């Protein structure tokens, strides 16, 4: 006999009125929300699309989760960096040092929506940075880079339950390596900017970490750790994360572009990254 999934509702200030409305729509018994979360048992998956659409309008993150899944059952989280673990797109902020943020940000946005080839668009954007002093990267890290809400709480949960955390970015090693040291991340992979005589050359060293590379790195680390696909969580926001999300047992679109929300198994739009931990018991 099949088991109905649990409908997990989350919002920063979740109230009983919204929970009750969504419970009735989902065919579940309402429960009182606790600390911004409500778990509705016996949710009817046939009403999934109706519930998700209404929840979005109500400002609630709604996800149908396999009953009984525990966060401690996972062994690895694979995360994108820009606009996922951190709030900014690093390349856009670097470009701002050159007075080119609008031009570069427009290319970034199109790439993240899946309208441009990622590798080609990255090379085009990096080329615009030629001549910029390396010190500009330090300014971006120190003055503009901020962690996404809930990131520290998610990382603390990973340490508590022995879940490894891997950062796989189409951004740059300058930032991933510093985040690894600051946050105690287990693994990081990203693109390397070429720097000569203290200035960016406008080129990337080696192969581009694109969508296929992210997928491959997830598979390699999963195999290395001896994990099954269902023991891996992947999270991201852009089109170049889709292959990675599909390869994981749990793929989470975090504050993502529409193309990613449409394809991801789970989605967080209003909650912080700690919402991933709270999806599971």
From TrEMBL:
Keyword Transport: no
Family: Belongs to the HAD-like hydrolase superfamily. SerB family.
Entries under SUPFAM superfamilies matching the protein: HAD-like (SSF56784)
Chain segments annotated as transmembrane: none
Keywords: Amino-acid biosynthesis, Hydrolase, Magnesium, Metal-binding, Serine biosynthesis
Enzyme class: hydrolase
This protein's name: Phosphoserine phosphatase
Pathway the protein contributes to: Amino-acid biosynthesis; L-serine biosynthesis; L-serine from 3-phospho-D-glycerate: step 3/3
Cofactor: Mg(2+)
Catalytic activity from the UniProt record: O-phospho-L-serine + H2O = L-serine + phosphate; O-phospho-D-serine + H2O = D-serine + phosphate
InterPro entries in UniProt: HAD-like_SerB, HAD-like_sf, HAD_sf, PSP
E.C. designation(s): 3.1.3.3
Entry keyword Transmembrane helix: no
UniProt GO molecular function: hydrolase activity
NCBIfam families, A to Z: HAD-SF-IB, serB
